[in-house]
Amino acid sequence: MSIVINGLPAVLPADPRVSLLDFLRDHLTLHGTKKGCDQGACGACTVLADGERILSCLALAVQYEGRSIVTIEGIGTATDLHPLQQAFVEHDGLQCGYCTPGQICSAIGMADEIQRGIPSHVSADLSASTIDLTREELRERMSGNLCRCGAHNGIIEAITATLAPVPEAAE
Fold first, then answer.
1. Is the pTM of this model over 0.85?
2. Residue 71 contacts residue 24 (beta carbons within 8 Å)
3. How many CB atoms within 10 Å of residue 136?
């Protein structure tokens, strides 16, 4: 049984009870994906499975046999950052950096959801073929990723600068 991690094949663990998060961190030494709450409440463990964002602490590694997983290590390089990674730096979207890998993976997955027209809880028109990335829409879609050190405004600015200009809400 194998899985593709950041473009490279990996042999799944023999124990079917190993979470995808523990497989990435403990078996493959990919420590960019963080263990936050281990209950799916903080988003620190967010990775992309075939392009869709998932919480790796709630997934068993064997569930993703034959699929492609991308972690933060598979997004950009130290010398060629992904545009979203660069925006996080430019907009102070990180302080301690613990949530940053999950935030970036989640934002990339979110961009794909918006492009596919998948509405959120706050989408005004559920049948619209395009979704405006308003500040409220962005905050709702990223609400599963928590930042405890106070970089939230920078995170929103970085995502906005990378994905689309967000019109200010009418006051």
1. yes
2. yes
3. 16
Residue with tokens 């463990």, as numbered in its chain: 45
Please count the structural domains in the chain: 2
Domain that holds residue 24: 2-74
Evaluate whether 90 touches 161 at the Cβ level (below 8 Å).
yes
Q: Are residues 116 and 65 in the same domain?
A: no
Tens digit of each residue's pLDDT (9 = 90 or more) over 36-47: 999 999 999 999
Residues 141 and 90 in one domain: yes
- Give the other-Cβ count within 10 Å of 78's Cβ: 6
Check the CA dihedral 57-58-63-69 and report its sign. negative
- CATH number for the domain that contains residue 123: 1.10.150.120
Q: Where does the chain show beta strands of DSSP type E?
A: 2-5, 8-11, 46-49, 52-55, 68-70
Give 71-130 pLDDT, tens digit per residue: 999 999 989 999 999 999 999 998 888 999 999 999 999 999 998 989 999 988 888 888
